[in-house]
Amino acid sequence: MANKILEVKGLKQYFGTAKQPIKAIDGISFDVYEGETLGLVGESGCGKSTTGRSIIRLYDITEGQITFKGKNISEMKSRKELMQFNREMQMIFQDPYASLNPRMTAGELIAEGFDIHGLYKNKKERQARIGELLEAVGLTREHANRYAHEFSGGQRQRIGIARALSLDPSFIIADEPISALDVSIQAQVVNLLKQLQKERGLTYLFIAHDLSMVKYISDRIAVMYRGKILELGSADEIYNNPIHPYTKSLLSAVPQPDPAYERNRTRIPYKHVEHDPAAKVIEARPGHFVFGTDAQVKDWAK
């Protein structure tokens, strides 16, 4: 078994007032292992992007513990520790239009991290490194002098990926990196991420709502709903043997490229019920975890 690179325990992220908190994340726990891709899926507003942003310290967490490479990230106070953490963990954002400064060239965008961390001060070395990163994501060195508006959506996302790679991180949070792209471009970007993972030994937390794409890229999948992780297991296990009714409902909505199947496909509606106070995380099968009571999980597993 690979080493744990990230451990999340009892993570809570509340917004609003103490009297009326909005529970964006309500006590979730999971691990991510070196070299794997953990897919985090769920509908809009379930808390999956907030989870990613909390892990990378864009938000101060309300409660819980996030341990990265054996260190509690909430206890990192010194500038040196924080700088090292920021080099090790990077994020690819959802919207390639909003996440790139239109006043900066592609080269300047990629080199922002160099300036913050004091790297590649030699102009020649810097240009060579920018060129390498552009080529690594399928662009050319000539693209370094173009501005964001001169690129297509897919190309912009490639610049976002090059920027995330610029500091040689070991862990990347991909926050819905393909949802704003055309379907034909989505597959190219996902294949690029898989290739980069293989070449650079990267670990991904891949956040998305498209289950078919998540199955393609992920080793394991966590299904999130209303701030809770309801089911977690290997990609094949979640896809072929779902247990929680919400996971079954999500899977029933995935379209298939088969007209005969599509004509007969029946959606399984999910009726929201408040979580039972006795609900807990249960290992229903080896490595397959479900959130519910013993009686519920037994009933769902039938």
Task: Provide structural commentary.
- By secondary structure, this protein is an alpha/beta fold.
- It has a single domain, classed as Rossmann fold.
- Helix content is 36%, strand content 26%.
- An eight-stranded mixed sheet has the order 6-7-8-3-9-10-12-11, with helices on both faces. It has a four-stranded antiparallel sheet with strand order 2-1-4-5, covered by helices on one side.
- Residues 6-251 form the ABC transporter domain.
- It is an enzyme of class 3 (hydrolase).
- Belongs to the ABC transporter superfamily.
Summarize the structure.
The protein is of the alpha/beta class and 302 residues long. The protein has helices at 48-55, 79-88, 106-117, 123-136, 153-165, 183-200, 211-217, 235-240, 245-252, 259-264, 294-301; strands at 4-16, 21-33, 37-41, 63-68, 71-72, 89-92, 171-175, 203-208, 220-225, 228-234, 280-285, 288-292. The strands form 2 sheets. An 8-stranded mixed beta sheet has the order 6-7-8-3-9-10-12-11, with helices on both faces. Strands 2-1-4-5 form a 4-stranded antiparallel beta sheet, covered by helices on one side.
Radius of gyration: 20 Å
Using the 3D structure, state the CATH architecture.
Answer: 3-Layer(aba) Sandwich
**What is the spatial order of strands in the main beta sheet?**
6-7-8-3-9-10-12-11
% residues in beta strands: 25-35%
Helical stretch tally: 11
CATH topology name: Rossmann fold
Average pLDDT confidence is 93
CATH class (first level) name: Alpha Beta
Oligomer description = single chain
> Can you say what the CATH homologous superfamily is?
P-loop containing nucleotide triphosphate hydrolases
**What is the chain-wise order of helices and strands?**
EEEHEEHEHHHEHEHEEHHHEEH
What is the number of independent domains?
1
EC number: 3.6.3.-
GO molecular function: ATP binding; ATP hydrolysis activity
Family: Belongs to the ABC transporter superfamily.
Organism: Solibacillus isronensis B3W22
